[in-house]
Amino acid sequence: MLRDFQNILNFSLTVGNVLENIVVSLICSLIIALFYRWTYKGGGYSLSFIHSLVILSMITAIVIMVIGNNLARAFGLVGAMSIIRFRTPIKEAMDIVYIFFSLAIGMAAGVGLHMVAVLGTIIVGCVLLILTKTNLFSKHKEKYLLQFNYLTPGNSNEPAYIEALNLYCKRYNLINIKSTGEEDQLEISYYVDVKNKNLNDKFIGDLNRIEGVSDINIYFNDENI
Predict the structure, then answer these.
(1) Distance, CA of 180 to CA of 182 (rounded, Å)
(2) 144 vs 225: CA distance, rounded Å
(3) Reported pTM
(4) Which of 119, 138, 144, 158 is the most buried (most CB within 10 A)?
(5) Domains along the sequence of the chain with CATH
(6) Residue 2, pLDDT above cutoff 50
(7) Cα separations (Å) of 131 from 62, 101, 120, 128, 138?
(8) How does DSSP assign 106-159, residue by residue?
(9) DSSP label at residue 22
(10) pLDDT in tens, 94-117
């Protein structure tokens, strides 16, 4: 390890060194892209983002090699990079993690710390994979957002749909009531903790058969099911 840091301070490159650093960054970034594919859970999977991770790591390695141990080059590149503006919003927090992942591995490859780059890619990638697949810190609750329209009857009795909620839900909390614009019709929203998620179809079917209930939607993890 001491020799590696001495090599950083005495930064001199040959054609072989350049090719070796770029190839290591390419291999590591391809592995990172595979880990991203295996761990991705969001919507709108982007192939261009995958390609960006691969190229980002290689470009970072090249930038590090250009800078070397020259402070003037470092400040010059910072000034040049400051004119770049990224306007694409990052929707998933994990995407930011992978961007920094690729940058870090590219830096390691660029300074010639190939063992750090390879082991870092494998170890961090495996940790990300384990956390994603095991859902270690997730809360195992079947909480749904239930929305439907309800045509209120003229009497003041308990709404007919309450019986269905009691039958299929452990708990339910009313969160919103608003008018749909039609006479006596309301849009009602509940958070419901269902007893058995496999009975959701039957739950919706029974609700739909109740007089006055229509346009039923039930959501889980922001996905309409």
Answers:
(1) 6
(2) 10
(3) 0.54
(4) 144
(5) 2-134 (no CATH), 143-224 (3.30.70.260)
(6) no
(7) 32, 16, 16, 5, 10
(8) HHHHHTT-HHHHHHHHHHHHHHHHHHHHHTTT-----EEEEEEEEE--SS-SPP
(9) H
(10) 888 888 888 888 888 888 888 988
